[in-house]
Task: inverse folding
């Protein structure tokens, strides 16, 4: 998160000489999602760094970073193929993430900051284009939630991810 990306200033981790726990957790989440997108054997002994700077945040920053990171990763793979550094694409499936939650008793997709703060239930969902789950992070912030509410949140999140996957595909086709 860059300074001024949130409602209150968050100093860059580099100014403190170390990254904080939140940043580490987000890095691990993005890393898991990107590894799930790839056949690591086809990638070979390479390290791909994807730098996710959130320039403006209004909730759902980690899922937005995952969705954008997949586009960056795909572009990097295309470049490696064009430069003959890879014989064929190691990309298995597209990956996207979205936030969902229950606010005021209603399930909502892509919560903004104020909705996220008021959410009784907060859930981050990361999936691939094959419809498989990569990560489900959910918590009852202010309340418990039922299996039926969880099913509603998952259905809403899956619909949002389908939209994001289509937007990614469109963006990558323009390259």
Result:
């Amino acid at each position: 998160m860059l300074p001024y990306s949130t409602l209150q200033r968050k100093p860059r981790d580099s100014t403190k000489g170390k990254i904080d726990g939140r940043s580490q957790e987000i890095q691990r989440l993005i890393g898991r999602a990107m590894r799930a997108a790839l056949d690591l054997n086809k990638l070979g002994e390479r390290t791909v760094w994807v730098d996710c700077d959130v320039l403006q945040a209004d909730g759902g920053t980690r899922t937005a970073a995952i969705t954008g990171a997949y586009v960056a990763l795909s572009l990097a793979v295309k470049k490696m193929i064009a430069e003959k550094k890879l014989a064929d694409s190691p990309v298995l499936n597209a990956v996207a993430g979205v936030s969902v939650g229950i606010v005021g008793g209603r399930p909502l997709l892509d919560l903004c900051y104020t909705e996220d703060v008021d959410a009784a239930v907060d859930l981050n969902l990361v999936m691939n284009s094959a419809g498989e789950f990569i990560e489900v992070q959910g918590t009852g912030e202010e309340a418990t939630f039922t299996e039926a509410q969880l099913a509603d949140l998952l259905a809403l999140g899956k619909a949002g991810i389908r939209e994001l996957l289509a937007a990614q595909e469109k963006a990558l086709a323009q390259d």
Notes: Strands lie at 95-103, 106-109, 121-128, 133-140. Residues 1-5 have pLDDT under 50 and may be disordered. The two ends are 27 Å apart (CA to CA).
